[in-house]
Structures are given as structure tokens and as C-alpha cells.
Design goal:
The structure is a single chain. Helix content is 39%, strand content 12%. The protein has 15 helices and 7 strands. It has a 5-stranded antiparallel sheet with strand order 1-5-4-3-2. A two-stranded antiparallel sheet has the order 6-7. This is DNA-3-methyladenine glycosylase 2 family protein.
Length: 319
């Protein structure tokens, strides 16, 4: 179910280009927005767009840059891809959209979770099969506001990434830089993007061993996290945020988060000041599915009343 020619990476001019195509029929209900939503790093993410129910995603595969367009139709999931990595993306379309996930393994044990589960039958945990594309933005999100992290990702990818391959008229997308390019970013551009030296150095250490980190895809999520955490600056928060996306890991709950323990504590026990230990205690009945349980809790939108000011923006000039 393929056709056409993959476009030369970065080519945007000339006659319309036909990508390679695939139609896939998932088993059971699938909510495309819920499944791929975790890949979006803010509303202006240069690697991700949603237009009229169609998802566009630019990424760097082991075979090269590629753009993937996905839409849910009555005939199934229709996908088209361009670039050197087009076949790689289309071959892995089912696993990206949660075909290797097992939603039936989840059993709600709290009323609020059960209601969220009932209202969202199409939630599946995606699996990108790519480590660095989730690791780098997760490092950028360490210890800063999400707005600051999204801004840094946007600035760096637009300046140092490359235009995504695809047809004329597609949304403007960029493929994130390759490891060599990340290493060449000068210190002043990290600073202009609002990235302090600690996060920049963590990314630089990671891209130097990028092949070894990508090999973590052959490991189970727990072992993959251990490999990632061998890189100084990558801790449990960052490794969990990465493997949740790269591996589709249903049990890898995020610890060390500023807000998640309070949200889980409030949702499951009416407690506003839960810490990581209390969060894990409350999620213990979901062991094996703790990340999925946290997703359902977050989707309720139920959060504890705010007692303290929002996390202040970081002035990296004072670090």
C-alpha cells in the first residue's frame, strides 16, 4: 500500500511531490489526538502541527529526515510520508499509534479514574522507537516553566534544524538537528534560547553518545532508563519522560515533577500536598500501569487549589 517517491530532504520548490502512503486499520477505537498529543512540545512546536484533524510530524529517523502526515478516516488511519526516512516511519506507523500497547491490561480502581477511562476509550500509549527526539526536549524542560522550555526548543530547532521534506503547501516544519549539529551550537545561542549551562551541557553529553542511547530501544523500559541515567544530568524525571514516548512504557511514572504528585494526591485521596513517595503509594494498585493511570488522572483536569505562586521564570544570567 505504498506509492510515489520520497522527496529529497529539504526540497520544497518545484512540482507537487507524492509521498509514500499507507492505510492502517487499528483494532478497537483510537483517538488520534490523545495518542500523539505527548509528542507536541507547545502550540508552536516546529516539528508538529495539527491542521483540520490532520497531524503532521517531522522527525529524524535512523534512515534520515522525514515528514509524516496522519489522518483518521472512515476507512482507517491514512498516512503519507516524505523524505529519506519515509519507509521507516510508515513501517512503524502501527506501533507509533499504540498497536503494541495493551489498554485491556488497565483496570480502574478509583471512581475518578474509572470515569476518565470510560470517557476516553481511544487512549493508547504511543511508541516512537526513537530516543533522542524525546530526550533532548525533556532535558530542556528540566527545572523551568513549560513556556520557557517550549521557547528554547522552538528557537533551537528552527535555527539549527533543517526544513522538513514534503509537498508544497504543507505546514512549515523543521526536523530537529542531528547530533553533530547540536554539538556545534555556540554558547551564546544556548543563552539566547534561555538554556542555562547545566541543561546545555547535559544535551551535549547526550548527543556525544547518541548511538548508544538510541540502542536503548532494544532494552526494556527499566533498563533503558538506567542507560539514559548514566549520562550526567539525566535523572529519573528525564528518563521517565523519554521512555514514556520512545518505548510506550505503561508503568514508567514520572517522579521529581513539581505538580504531578499534588495532582495525583488530590485526585485519589483529596490531598493537596502529596510528595513523590505518597504519589507512588497511591498509584501502587496500578503497578504495571502507573503511567497510564497518571495519564487518565491528568486528563480529568482536576487539580488542587493553588496555594503558592506559579513557578517563576528562570533568569539564566543569575545562574
Amino acid at each position: 500500500m505504498r506509492g510515489g517517491d520520497a522527496r529529497v530532504p529539504g526540497a520544497r520548490a518545484g512540482a507537487p511531490v507524492t509521498g509514500r502512503t499507507r492505510t492502517w486499520n487499528p483494532t478497537g477505537h483510537l483517538d488520534l489526538g490523545l495518542v500523539v498529543g505527548p509528542l507536541r512540545r507547545g502550540p508552536a512546536d516546529p516539528t508538529f502541527r495539527v491542521t483540520a484533524g490532520t497531524v503532521w510530524r517531522a522527525t529524524r529517523t535512523p534512515e534520515g529526515p522525514a515528514t509524516l502526515r496522519i489522518a483518521a478516516r472512515s476507512t482507517g488511519i491514512e498516512a503519507e510520508a516524505w523524505g529519506a526516512g519515509a519507509d521507516w516511519l510508515l513501517d512503524r506507523l502501527p506501533q507509533l499509534l499504540g498497536d503494541t500497547d495493551d489498554p485491556a491490561a488497565f483496570a480502574p480502581r478509583h471512581r475518578l479514574v474509572a470515569e476518565s477511562h470510560r470517557r476516553r476509550p481511544g487512549l493508547r500509549l504511543l511508541r516512537t522507537g526513537l530516543v533522542m527526539e524525546s530526550l533532548i526536549p525533556s532535558v530542556l524542560e528540566q527545572k523551568v516553566t513549560t513556556d520557557e522550555a517550549y521557547r528554547a526548543w522552538r528557537i533551537l530547532v528552527r535555527k539549527y534544524g533543517e526544513p522538513a521534506p514534503g509537498p508544497d503547501g504543507m505546514p512549515e516544519l523543521h526536523v530537529m538537528p542531528d547530533p553533530h549539529t547540536w554539538r556545534m551550537i555556540p554558547s551564546w545561542d544556548w543563552h539566547r534560547a534561555g538554556v542555562d549551562n547545566k541543561r546545555a551541557q547535559t544535551i551535549l553529553r547526550a548527543v556525544r553518545v547518541a548511538p548508544r542511547l538510541e540502542e536503548a530501544m532494544a532494552l526494556d523500559p527499566e533498563q533503558a532508563r538506567k542507560r539514559l541515567e548514566l549520562v550526567p544530568g539525566i535523572g529519573p524525571w528525564t528518563s521517565a519522560e523519554t521512555v514514556q514516548r520512545s518505548h510506550g512504557a505503561p508503568d514508567e511514572v514520572t517522579v521529581g515533577d513539581l505538580h504531578l504528585p499534588g495532582i495525583v494526591g488530590y485526585a485519589l485521596a483529596g490531598e493537596r500536598d502529596a510528595d513523590d513517595a505518597r504519589m507512588l503509594e497511591l498509584l501502587e494498585p496500578y503497578r504495571g500501569q502507573r503511567h497510564r493511570a497518571a495519564r487518565y488522572i491528568l486528563l480529568t483536569g482536576r487539580t488542587p487549589p493553588r496555594r503558592t505562586p506559579k513557578m517563576p521564570k528562570t533568569d539564566i544570567g543569575k545562574l
